[in-house]
Design a protein that fits this description.
Elements: E1 14-18, E2 25-26, E3 37-41, E4 48-49, E5 61-65, E6 83-87, E7 108-112, E8 130-134, E9 155-159, E10 177-181, E11 202-206, E12 224-228, E13 249-253, E14 271-275, E15 296-300, H1 311-315, E16 321-325, E17 343-345
């Protein structure tokens, strides 16, 4: 298939090439200086791009996906580029020289399903706000990629990079949302989280089955924390040893070997979910102090849980939803003002014995 006819369309702004089964190379595009949006997807025979793709001064959006034989993307000198997506490129092993130069206006970068990609160079992306790295099965380290500051980065997702073993110290002053999921070779989040991420509001760490250590969290702005399917974690200390004064939502689930949760200093906590924590026997010292703003407490399928400390009933005046489900060994709970609850579920708590009914309380 030939694309030389494109030279006659010098004012074209959008060009999408899809399902071009015979296309082997992208020819000289230097005449398309008005092009703003270019995508190339599902071109199974495509091997290379002409270097001119990297010199389109008005290009804002570049998406290359599902081109399984593509081996080379040239150096990008794209002064206007804001959105770059590279997805399902099975033959790409390095993003150098592609990303060796600065892309000063790039805000969104998604690199996904490039299963043989082994190297990403140091990112010089002064305007980058959103970075997704997903299903990069050959990547072992995010250094040198993240060795320098990305001062405007707000969203970082690292997902299903099953051989990733090392994430460097994050110098991300503007980061608000961090997702780390299905990183099967990661054993520690140090040095990654050793420094403060003062603007981080959302942290999700899930399906990191060999993760054993999470350092003390210095996250003054954190509002939502999810820890799920961390099968090697035995304690949430030192992670939660300090106050997280703005934390509103804490969800800990399917951490089957977790035995200890420290005393929670969470003055703003509104929603607490503890689910499928098979080794937890008591919620002390976790709930020994007041959680004055707690509105929702879910304790579900903690099959060895026997004890909930009495402080729970004294300190949760704002509690509206209490779900105790499938905790078969839970014998008693503190006096609870049932009349003040919108929902109270204790299904599957076969051993539960309620205290005497007094003034609307169990």
């Amino acid at each position: 298939m030939s694309l030389f006819f494109l030279q006659n369309f010098k004012n074209i702004r959008t060009l999408h090439l899809e399902h071009c089964d015979s296309l082997r190379s992208i020819p000289d595009m230097s005449s398309l200086q008005n092009l703003q949006d270019f995508s190339c997807s599902y071109c199974p025979a495509l091997i290379t791009f002409d270097d001119s793709i990297g010199m389109l001064g008005n290009l804002k959006i570049l998406k290359v996906s599902s081109c399984h034989d593509l081996k080379y993307i040239p150096l990008l000198k794209l002064a206007s580029l804001e959105n770059l997506t590279l997805s399902d490129l099975d033959s790409i092993e390095s993003l150098s020289p592609m990303l060796d130069e600065s892309l000063d206006k790039l805000k969104f970068l998604d690199v996904s399903w490039c299963e043989h990609l082994m190297y990403i160079p140091l990112l010089k992306l002064a305007s980058l706000e959103n970075l997704t790295l997903s299903s990069l099965f050959s990547i072992e380290s995010l250094s040198p990629m993240l060795d320098e500051s990305l001062d405007k980065l707000k969203f970082l997702e690292v997902i299903c990079c099953k051989h990733l073993m090392y994430i460097p110290l994050l110098k991300l002053a503007s980061l608000e949302n961090l997702t780390l999921s299905s990183l099967f070779s990661i054993e520690s989040l140090s040095p990654m989280l050793d420094e403060s991420l003062d603007k981080l509001k959302f942290l999700d760490v899930s399906w990191c089955e060999h993760l054993m250590y999470i350092p003390l969290l210095k996250l003054a702005s954190l509002e939502n924390l999810t820890l799920s399917c961390l099968f090697s974690i035995e304690s949430l200390s030192p992670m939660l040893d300090e106050s997280l004064d703005n934390l509103k939502i804490l969800k800990v689930s399917c951490c089957h070997d977790l035995k200890y949760i420290p005393f929670l200093k969470l003055a703003s906590l509104e929603n607490l979910t503890l689910s499928c924590l098979f080794s937890i026997e008591s919620l002390s010292p976790m709930l020994d102090e007041s959680l004055d703003n707690l509105k929702i407490l879910e304790v579900m399928y903690c099959k060895h849980l026997v004890y909930i400390p009495p402080m729970v009933s004294q300190s949760m005046a704002k509690l509206k939803i209490l779900r105790l489900e499938g905790c078969k060994k839970l014998r008693n709970i503190p006096a609870i003002n049932v009349a003040s609850l919108d929902e109270f579920d204790h299904s599957g708590c076969e051993s539960l014995e309620f205290p005497p009914l007094t003034d609307g309380r169990y």
